[in-house]
């Protein structure tokens, strides 16, 4: 059966039907019993990342699917830290939500697409503890579930963009003529209806206390988005890096028109922030990313900082390979211990950050 795919980018109403034999190569299937099924994958996932995900999803003994939210898989990565895996609804890489169950309060880092009862799931896992909701950045696969909650925190540079959300944020996931989902099969009513909520931007270094001095600190990173932030769990010695440290590819697209502080969505800004973070490697041991492999060694922060330095110094010469894309040349720099840093000439941006 031919499937509909979106060829015009996010929010585009231009759709085309292609037969399965014309699709890009698809990774081998992963067995699951979720109530959402992938239909089309926009691009192949790196084989190493996919193998790690396949082993985790098919063999990890901590995996659970809760009846309150049958659209996600829950993994217990630490005694009080859970990874909530969400299937991508737009054909990209599946994304992680992280839940920290503190002594008195809990925190979730990112909210994915908003498919299923994430709020109810967190309440069931934590026993109904007060919940603090934070975003690493504004992108659809990390922040479109925000409206299930009354207030969401983020870095102050990201707040104006997140605040632009409305009830139409999910329109691009569906065929405009039939209303059928394009990239994944799921009932539209499982998207919890959007409602206004409070977006609170906070500065670099802001901390939350989950009880008894259990502190989580927001760490400004820039790079993948202007206000991209990571979160440092000081007690568990874990850094949650969002999409600025990923085992497959970290994309830095550069300033976008109309986006405040767009100069921070740059390789230069991210490199400077990574160097600052590298000076704090004695404060955390492992990194959990917004996609794919978790429990990365903390030293990859230094490797990313060095890759950014090389790109800023010589953008063309630092590239390991180059591809032609719809917006021109896309450059890729290999990053030790991770994968690649993806950038364009618009992504560099001079300045102090």
- SSE pattern: EEEHEEEEHEHEHEEEEEEEHEEHEEE
For the sheet with most strands, the description reads: 6 strands, mixed
Helix/strand/pairing category: alpha+beta
- Strand segment count: 21
Helicity, as a percent range: 10-25%
Total helices: the number is 6
Uncertain stretches: 1-17
Mean pLDDT: 92
Strand order of the largest sheet: 12-13-14-15-17-18
Instruction: Output the radius of gyration.
Output: 19 Å
Shape: globular
Distance between the termini: 51 Å
Strand content: 25-35%
Please explain how this structure is put together.
The chain is of the alpha+beta class. The chain has six helices and 21 strands. It has helices at 47-59, 118-126, 140-143, 159-162, 267-278, 300-313, and strands at 3-6, 15-18, 37-38, 72-78, 81-86, 95-101, 106-109, 131-134, 151-155, 184-185, 198-202, 207-209, 215-220, 229-233, 238-242, 249-252, 286-289, 296-297, 321-325, 328-334, 340-343. The strands form six sheets. A six-stranded mixed beta sheet has the order 12-13-14-15-17-18, with no helix packed on it. Strand 20 and strand 21 (340-343) form a beta hairpin. It is globular, with a radius of gyration of 19 Å.
